[in-house]
Records
---
Amino acid sequence: MVKILVVEDDAGLNTAVCAFLRKNGYDVTGCALANDAYNAMYSTLYDLIISDVMMPQIDGFEFAETVRKINRTIPIIFMTARDDFPSKQRGFAAGIDDYMVKPVDLDELLLRIAAILRRSNISQSKRLTVGSLSLDADAVSAFSDGQEIQLTAREFNLLFKLLSYPNKTFTRVQLMDEFWNADSNAGPRAVDVYMTKIRDKLSVAGCSGFEIVTVHGLGYKAVVK
């Protein structure tokens, strides 16, 4: 499921946007301030951010610039009352992908989210085909040329995540935060063990068209050939 982070200090609007997006199939987290959003992003990998501009402490421009230093690809939509061209210019210069002026039509927001996710190759589809491998998230099943590959739920989720974002590096800590319980005693090196198991199973199944690559000192990424 696509994860969206909403950063909006107006509590009523934050609640309304989050509820609307959840109703339309998104996994949404609402934050009132940029610092809250930073904390949320530390523990969860989001697919898209919707942010206000005029917020206390850290405004949307600074927030977007900071996010861009950390993540160059995550889509960012500004949702703001500021309708002047200099603000729009500054927002896009900070690295945002879209700019909507309040009051925002939520149905239009939904359309813009879908368009940006398509352009970012992020889809709500729970099926994924890369090379000879086909993944079905609903059934938690993997097939290579029609032959099923026996993956555990965690192995499947790790593989699906990497293949959903070709060439994007995920650190061991990021993967641990998303796919291991907070109370797990496992350390980041547990990710290495799982990646070895996944590679072995893919090799036995003769999967082609991609490779799970180790990014030394960081983590892993899927490279599509």
---
Amino acid sequence: MYSRWQLAQKYIRYYLTASNGKGHGIHSPFVYEFITHVLNDDTEYEAYQQVEALRKGMLSDKDIIHVEDFGAGSVSGKTRQRTIASIARHAAKPEKWAQLLYRIVNYYQPETILELGTSLGISTAYMAKANPHAYVITAEGSNAIAQEAIRNFNELHIPSVELVEGNFDDTLPSILRTMQVVDMAFIDGNHRREPTLRYFAQIMAHTHNFSVIILDDIHWSGEMEQAWQEIREHPRVRLTIDLFFIGLVFFREEIKVKQHFTIRF
């Protein structure tokens, strides 16, 4: 993982060199549409207030749970004590990015959504509420966190989400056999090069022309930047959008020449 200073330097470089977030100078109709209808959609959807009210409650929740963490920087099987407030503050997707996920689902209306890394279910809830008819499967490595997420889904009246517990290495193959087709995937877990590339390849085998795969923390470390670069170079990938904290991957065959965009958001 990069230090805060390194990340700050990278972010400044990104901010100064990225295309502006208004669509000026963007010659791709697909990306211009994404910017105008998704990035810059300033509608205050009802789901925003519902999910953020839940987050606010968790940020003051001092209950302690025992967390098993399988991601980067952890030892598989190692258990730590953490408060709900700490997890909500440091592990749940921030409001800005969780609401972007909502808008992506709201605009493209994927019928099947896969998430690797449920955490407390904030991002899951946003995606599920954006298309109540979608089939949503989310995977979480820690049993204790998964139980909190299920309670949150119940509180938000989202019964349609299926949560699968366990290490992604073990659970992802069976999840994909169940889903068969993945319209949208959000990979937010592990944060190492080899597992990220492996999860991406497994999911990509179940995608189609209109699918989108979103990767979290693509500049989190040197390993994640390497994984992002290799994904961009994959022959099936036709277009990518780098928003610094997340990266979007599209497979549109009608885009004959690869296109890679870095956009300020």
---
Amino acid sequence: MLSFLQFSPPAFIGLCALAGLLVGSFLNVVIHRLPKMMERDWRAQCAELQGAEPPIMPRYNLVLPPSACPHCERRIGVLENIPLVSYLVLRGKCKGCGARISPRYPLVEAASALLAAAVAWHFGFGTAALAALPFVWALIALTVIDYETRLLPDAITLPLLWLGLLVNLFSVYADTRSAVIGAAMGYLALWSVYWLFKLATGKEGMGYGDFKLLAAIGAWLGWQALPLVILLSALVGIVAGLFLIIARRQGRHVPIPFGPCLAGAGMVALFWGPMLTQGYLAFIQP
């Protein structure tokens, strides 16, 4: 089977795309439930600090309770939970109450499958492709969570950072030294910007989750990719901010999540980082 996948790129790409659909369905669970799990933990911790009894709440994690419609609380059956297919068959509505299902669900599943196929096509069969899959899937989850809640959970960013360092023990995307320096520089770069902005304005310009995400990207791609990632994410952030101010008439003081910008830049650097960096250096050299 491994030999077949190695010498049949279409089969490997198709298998990764199928895996992406299945993982995308799970990512939707993570995106929906992880922030709620964090909120429950915070409430329990606050009660403990105040010397009160933690509130008694039913078990809630990534497995329990089973998935149900948030409107009518009807349990979602297996045949209603097939990635992409079920959404199309149900025409984006709950089978029980007819309430609209958020298009975020099929979009996450499609993005997970398409990016997995892109990884398989770009890297081919091997360690680089297999390691890149969890990297892009984690970035998808972080992008949507930060966009919806302004949170970048440690439960994703920290394992992603350590996994990047472990992967690069074998110099998959960068040598180990570059990966370690990348993790440190990624964190310190945004940490420094955070404190400079806070000292200058008295306000917080970003959250600690952004530091950890850039550190994770540095751990995966090495310190050499960080200038490109920071530049691309800053450009995307500026464009997104101007769009929200102009198109939505959103005040300039309304916070804009920076995690999606970092995640998008990290994906670009994963696929084309060395090529873009070399092109930039060739352009600025006399």
---
Amino acid sequence: MSKENKKVTQNDVAREAGVTRSMVSYVISGNTERSVAPETRQRILDVIERLGYRPNKAAQALQQGDVAFASRQIGVVLCSPDVFRRPYYTEIIAGIHTAAHEKKYHVRFIRFFEELKDPILFNELIHEEEIGSLILVSTDQCMKDDSDRAVIEKIRSRVKKVVCVEWQYPGLSSISFDRREAARLATEHLYFKGYKDIAYLGQNDNRIDGVRACLMEHNLDTSLEKVYIGSAFDMSGSYEEIKKIYEKTKTLPRAIVCGSDEVAIGILCYLNEQKIKVPQEVALISIDNIETSSFTNPPLTTMNVQKTAMGSRAVEMIVNGTAQQNENALDISLPTNLVERASC
């Protein structure tokens, strides 16, 4: 083997940096049990950069053992490919990646729930010699029957550290926000702004319960047919839903609680096209506070959800060992807060 093609080892880095091989190993692994002076750490990193050192994963696994090596590997499972096009979820994924990097953990793979129904792929990915933990993002959106629940049960039998993000599953740890409370607070904001004719358009979940709870508290109509005017998950869906409602009835509620900012943006687009003024004729409030919500016309009033924090806290639960199962499962609910703009 020529000198140019010789693989750089930790011994080469140690010799060049004037330190021991074990110190190089500590810096590379991110081990915090032993302190390394900042200038020494930087010198080692500079040598790694100069020599082009790359860790030998096979050797690391051999040295540490497959399970120990995999303990810092995190798998991520998403509900569907649509997640990558949804700004809400990209913030959650960004939180996962950033926290994993900071904690010296690695995202081993990102897969979709449907893929795990392939037994060959499942057996390849979901075991303790491949990953030490798994984060399931909004998987409830694609779970339809017992066969889906069987996949979750099979996962939890193989991987001890599992965190559900933005949803909950019995016996598994989770990090989420209270959808019902966020919708209740959004409705309450509309009520105290003077709106009484309030309806909900969005995902069919406990956000509806939050809207109805507020209306009931103030002795307003809580009948489901009055409150829940349509189902939508994204901008195109809400655009079509509000269009169908308006073309059929020629009337709209005075104020609408939107299940998400994307739902609100679709509604707002249609209202603008019809020259229906917001908030003068129809007021909107939504839930999420994605970046786009501050740039719509008018800017959306919304309940801020701690999206990046959900991703990062999931990683923290894995790192600090609180991502446990059954009676030791930990459920964390992050609070939401109102971001008032001009749509109501």
